[in-house]
């Protein structure tokens, strides 16, 4: 079971077409122009017409010399020189002698909307850092986009925890990456070791999109890019983001004890386990699925309400494995309690809250918590195929392995493109502010490293607030993994490198078939 974008919507003046295209250095724009010039539409055409008028060069000379149109000197102070230019002020083009670019004024009596273009399609650094394919025919100009985010991105500085580099400053895509990954997936497919979808994007562009195997073997339905997979514990990122939203609104504090919101727990749990402990797996609570009788009873539940309330009833019977904050133990129970706190504060069901406040604003139109009956019958969903003791694969939906619906700890459904959208929306402040995003995605403490596997570098892992991190070859990786019978998933992004890597499988992870590990090795090289 367990496993808005506040991109600035400022309208900006259209930029004129490049000037002096055929000039050979100096201020060669005063040379005679051909008799017939192509007419440019709108503001660009008016600016070019102005430049061709007699005396235009002299006016520019006076402008560079600090004089106005009448020839009178214009006083220049230090403050004037340091000010960001307003509309209509000539901007020098770095590296081009004597050239200027003008942002046209809007003449009285004209429609100003004719001279503006919105930023809907502008490719800002944040949009490039994470997400889906973006329009490439509109360039973001750091000189005319004065927002803090774009300025920091253009200068190569980090933007609130997501190190954003201009595209020219990023390391080139590793040569042969597509070929290496295709060979790896070809081998897994030939040996029937992986079935699922792999999606890798960089700077808003798809680098690899590959689906192999079958979503439903019995019906012969193959996996596709839009196949919906059970996510297992990748779901925990949605629950953590919901808590971040409520914390940002001031509806809760991360140090609040759970007894402030929920009743029925033992005093040592209600008074001492905090939301921070639940998010970091340091509460001492364990895994409700390991409690005697849980699977037998949960198989009889037929509604989402029964799933949430019935699971919480079992968790209330748990005892702590250690004093809260003194140890670490992966806890599905802890994340289910977080989902119940979301319900208590918001007044909505957990499922409705995630649909309304996570999936919808992120544009995750193919994501949801799906009922078991639909999972079994809807051809858009991938069936999980674990192996039995003899190594034979079987459809886990034929038994009672899975309950009526997923929980705050796991088993939401999504497509690979939707998970790219989630990563983008989380990092571009669509879902939470940059401040609270940083609080939740940054590492809180390291996990003792496991011995490195032969031929592989050591990985340092960290626990965060629902989003975990790893350092491999000096590269930071953030996201979450998931696993359940017949399910292997991961959603990770690479701050500062622009990579987002998704793998959704409907087979168990197997030795020699760790797709997430292979993606990390390739992208962090």
TrEMBL record:
Q: Which GO terms describe its cellular component?
A: membrane
Origin: domain of life: Bacteria
Composition bias type Basic and acidic residues, residue spans: 1-15, 24-33, 49-71
| SUPFAM superfamilies (UniProt xref) | beta-lactamase/transpeptidase-like
Q: Which organism is it from?
A: Kribbella sindirgiensis
Signal peptide per UniProt: none
Which compartments does it reside in?
Membrane
Give the GO molecular function terms.
Answer: hydrolase activity
Q: Where is the composition biased (Basic residues)?
A: 98-118
Q: Output the Pfam families linked to this UniProt entry.
A: Beta-lactamase (PF00144)
Q: Which residues form the Beta-lactamase-related domain?
A: 191-514
Region of interest: Disordered: 1-123
Q: Principal place where this protein is found? A: membrane
Q: What keywords sit in the KW lines? A: Hydrolase, Membrane
Q: What is this protein called?
A: Class A beta-lactamase-related serine hydrolase
């Amino acid at each position: 079971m367990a496993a808005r974008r506040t991109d600035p919507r400022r309208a900006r003046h259209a930029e004129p077409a490049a000037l002096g295209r055929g000039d050979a250095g100096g201020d060669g724009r005063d040379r005679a122009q051909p008799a017939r010039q192509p007419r440019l539409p709108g503001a660009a055409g008016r600016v070019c017409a102005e430049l061709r008028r007699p005396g235009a060069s002299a006016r520019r000379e006076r402008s560079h010399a600090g004089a106005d149109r009448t020839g009178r000197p214009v006083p220049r102070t230090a403050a004037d020189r340091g000010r960001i230019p307003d509309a209509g002020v000539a901007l020098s083009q770095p590296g081009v002698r004597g050239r200027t670019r003008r942002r046209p004024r809007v003449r009285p009596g004209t429609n100003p909307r004719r001279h503006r273009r919105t930023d809907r399609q502008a490719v800002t650094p944040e949009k490039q850092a994470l997400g889906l394919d973006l329009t490439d025919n509109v360039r973001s100009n750091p000189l005319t986009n004065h927002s803090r985010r774009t300025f920091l991105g253009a200068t190569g500085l980090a933007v609130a925890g997501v190190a954003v580099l201009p595209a020219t400053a990023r390391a080139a895509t590793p040569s042969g990456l597509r070929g290496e990954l295709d060979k790896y997936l070809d081998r897994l497919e030939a040996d029937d070791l992986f079935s699922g979808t792999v999606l890798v994007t960089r700077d808003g562009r798809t680098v690899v999109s590959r689906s192999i195997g079958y979503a439903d073997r019995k019906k012969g339905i193959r996996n596709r890019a839009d196949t919906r997979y059970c996510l297992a514990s990748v779901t925990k990122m949605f629950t953590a983001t919901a808590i971040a939203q409520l914390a940002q609104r001031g509806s809760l504090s991360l140090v609040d004890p759970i007894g402030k919101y929920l009743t029925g727990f033992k005093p040592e749990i209600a008074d001492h386990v905090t939301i921070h402990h639940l998010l970091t797996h340091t509460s001492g609570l364990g895994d409700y699925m390991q409690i005697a009788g849980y699977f037998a009873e949960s198989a009889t539940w037929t509604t989402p309400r029964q799933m949430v309330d019935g699971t919480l009833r079992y968790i209330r019977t748990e005892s702590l494995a250690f004093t809260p904050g003194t140890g670490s133990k992966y806890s599905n129970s802890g994340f289910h309690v977080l989902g119940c706190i979301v319900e208590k504060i918001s007044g909505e069901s957990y499922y409705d809250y995630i649909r309304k406040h996570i999936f919808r604003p992120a544009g995750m139109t193919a994501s949801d918590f799906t009922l078991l009956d639909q999972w079994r019958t809807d051809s858009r969903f991938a069936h999980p195929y674990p192996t039995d003791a003899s190594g034979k694969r079987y459809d886990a939906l034929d038994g009672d392995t899975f309950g009526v619906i997923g929980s705050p700890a796991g088993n939401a459904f999504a497509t690979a493109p939707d998970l790219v959208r989630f990563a983008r929306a989380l990092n571009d402040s669509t879902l939470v502010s940059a401040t609270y995003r940083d609080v939740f995605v940054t590492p809180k403490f390291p996990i003792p490293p496991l011995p490195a596997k032969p031929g592989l570098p050591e990985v340092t892992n960290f626990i965060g607030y629902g989003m975990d991190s790893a350092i491999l070859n000096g590269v930071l990786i953030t996201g979450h993994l998931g696993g359940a019978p017949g399910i292997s998933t991961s959603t990770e992004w690479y701050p500062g490198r622009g990579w987002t890597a998704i793998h959704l499988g409907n087979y168990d992870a197997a030795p020699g078939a760790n797709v997430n590990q292979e993606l990390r090795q390739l992208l962090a090289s």
